[in-house]
Amino acid sequence: MAKNLERVKKDGYSIEARERSQLLSVVLTGTFDMTATQDLQKFLEEVRAEVIATKPRELEMDVSSVYYLGSSCIKAFVSLTAALKAAPKRPLMRILTSSRLDWQELTFAVLARLAPDLVVVERVA
Amino acid sequence: MTSSPPRRVRFIKVEFAPSSGCLGSLVAVVTDFCRNVIDDPDVVFAFRMAAFELTENIVKYCSGDRATIEISVDNTSYGAELVLTAENQADTERLRDADERLLAGEAAEDPVAHFDKLVRDTLNSPNESRLGLGRLRAEADLTVSHQVKQDTISIQVRRRVLNAGSGDK
Q1: Which of these, A49, A115, B3, B9, has the minimum number of CB atoms within 10 Å of its CB?
Q2: A106 with B139: Cβ contact below 8 A
Q3: Structural domains in chain A?
Q4: A91, A58 in Cβ contact below 8 A?
């Protein structure tokens, strides 16, 4: 587990981070509606701080087991993307979406449009 | 004894007291209705998203103690449409703001470009995302319209559907 990122586990969703050589990996599962916004926002702010402190080469966000992401939670991802875009040493932000859940690619594509040099959206099995 | 023909379920309307605790139940009602009338996971997901976004807006901005959400299949001259309607009271300033944002979204020729602008704008809006209504056109390919009458706003999202069933699966 990443040192400064404590796992969040609530009824309906969870967020967890792992760190290994030059890669910070964040895994989200469940339904992220308005009731998850505060936890997600706080966690992603901590991810931003961790990235700036440890300067990993890659930030991987595995959202393939997310069943819904509300607009307030999209904003949390937008804020993270904008903050990393402005960082002096930015990692590649790789977003892993499910090939079975088409909406994920559509939803996260907005981040790639916001920061095309920073964000890659990929489908996984 | 002859069995009576199956009844055609064409709408469900729910009146509720706005609270985040009822979000999941309302979304489940809308999603189940859609699954019963249409065998298209993309359309079902589009209306699930709309149910979440419209209900969350009601929970955040409703000024009254009651609101309604209705999901229906409407037969039009050009085929069947699924329609989701959310109605609630709101403060004058909130109504004006919602009206302006909805008019801009409805008039936008390119829903994706409009949504991208909202995404850039949200960075200057610390407490609100203001993305929910925009994503319904950009991501879910839904037609959005609205009406403001006195202190009440009614938002409708719709999509034409093929082979809408009777709801008696």
Answers
A1: B3
A2: yes
A3: 8-124 (3.30.750.24)
A4: yes
Residue B71 has pLDDT above 60, yes or no: yes
Q: Are strands B11-16 and A13-20 parallel, antiparallel or unpaired?
A: unpaired
ipTM attached to this prediction: 0.92
The model's pLDDT over A27-44, given as tens digits with 9 standing for 90+, comes to 999 999 999 999 999 999
- Spatial neighbors of B42 by CB under 8 A, at least 6 apart, are A102
Burial B159-168 (b: 16+ CB within 10 A, else e): bebeebbebe
The reported pTM is 0.91
Q: How far is A80 from chain B (nearest CA, A)?
A: 10
Query: Which chain A positions have a beta carbon within 8 Å of B135's beta carbon?
Result: 71, 74, 107
**Could you tell me which chain B residue has the CA closest to the CA of A32?**
B52
Give the domains, in start order, of chain B with CATH numbers: 11-161 (3.30.565.10)
* Chain A positions in Cβ-Cβ contact with residue B140 (cut-off 8 Å): 103
Structure-block tokens of residue B14: 């729910």
For the stretch B122-152, pLDDT in tens is 999 878 888 999 999 999 999 999 999 999 9
Q: How many helices (H) and strands (E) does chain A have?
A: 3, 6
